[in-house]
Amino acid sequence: MPGRTARVFLSLGANLGDRAAALAAALADLSALGAVRVQHLSPLYETEPLLPDDAAFPSGPPPWYLNQVAEVTTTLDPHALLAALKDTETRLGRAPSRSRWDTREIDVDILLFDDLVLDDPDLTLPHAGLTRRRFVLVPLADLAPELAVPGTGRTVTEHLAALQDSLRVLRYQPGST
User: Which one in 86, 93, 106, 134 has a CA-CA gap of 20 to 30 Å to 25?
Assistant: First the structure.
């Protein structure tokens, strides 16, 4: 795949600190690599955190996320892109998580990589939660509503219409939180 340009959709999220600045910094860091070029960005969305049913938070529930989807092109292969994303997260202060429910300074995931279907220990494509998460499908639908999700036989819009996720996803209004 080296030398070939792939169309990729990334999900970005943060729920600590200046969330909008964290998303912008992640995109700038990835662009500085030279092998990742941002093509289009969805609007920003504030999203209710996804939590397990039995979650107990003595200091109160975690803050809402700010989420966005970016369409990028890259000459990196999927695993090299994943490594670049993890490096970016580390540079921007993401600490190793004790739990998948921890708060995050930044989180960047590969949603789709061309029409690739991949399931290996390090990377699943399309992203395993893509078709079950409103906070991913809403901004993805802003960019590519008729895009067929590989391996599912459905478009992004069709997945969104069939979604059972009831978490709130609201268009971000700066200064509202």
Answer: 134
Contacts 24+ apart (CB under 8 A), 57-65: 62/15, 62/101, 62/103, 63/15, 63/16, 63/103, 64/15, 64/177, 65/13, 65/14, 65/15, 65/19, 65/135
What is the model's pLDDT at position 94?
86
Say what the pTM is: 0.92
> How many Å apart are CA 45 and CA 55, to the nearest integer?
23
pLDDT tens profile 109-145: 999 999 999 999 999 999 999 999 999 999 999 999 9
Active-site residue, from 7, 37, 77, 109: 109
Q: Does 142 qualify as catalytic in the annotation?
A: no
What count of other Cβ atoms lies within 10 Å of the Cβ of residue 60?
Answer: 6
Catalytic residue among 104, 133, 134, 165: 104
**Which pLDDT tens digit goes with each residue over 35-88?**
899 999 999 999 998 776 656 666 677 889 999 999 999 999 999 999 999 999
Q: CA 76, CA 11: separation in Å to the nearest integer?
A: 17
Q: Where are the domains of the chain?
A: 6-54+62-171
19 is catalytic: no
